[in-house]
Amino acid sequence: MQHSWPFFDLVLRTPVLELRIPDDDLLEQLGTVIKEGIHDPERMPFDDPPWTDEASPDRELAWITRQWAGRSAIKPDAWRLRFAVLDLNGLALGMQDLLATAFPALRAVSSYSGTVALSRRGAFRSGAESEMSDSLRPR
User: Which of 3, 4, 44, 92 has its CA 20 to 30 A from that of 25?
Assistant: First the structure.
């Protein structure tokens, strides 16, 4: 099915994961992941402002508001595609972002990942951890 916003039709599949731009229903499912926490509270793995330390429900509200704002901020020369990471059963595991600035000139991207420990979400067969980290690596 084609959507009015073409990025909703963008899906990347690997043998153990699916990455897709989340619609609002999937954002709600991902909100559960955000509420549970995506990292050990004793360690901050991100260089972003420490939004993951906010108390629930403020953390989820701030997160979903950023997701909505990010949709309207996509421009040809600067963008952040915010993919939901799902297992093959459709279980939301977190997010994998692909970012670019001055894309027409630089033709380079960077990535940002916020996923729960796979063991906490009932996870995968062996090797899925490396599949997740390698899913967007150029071949």
Answer: 44
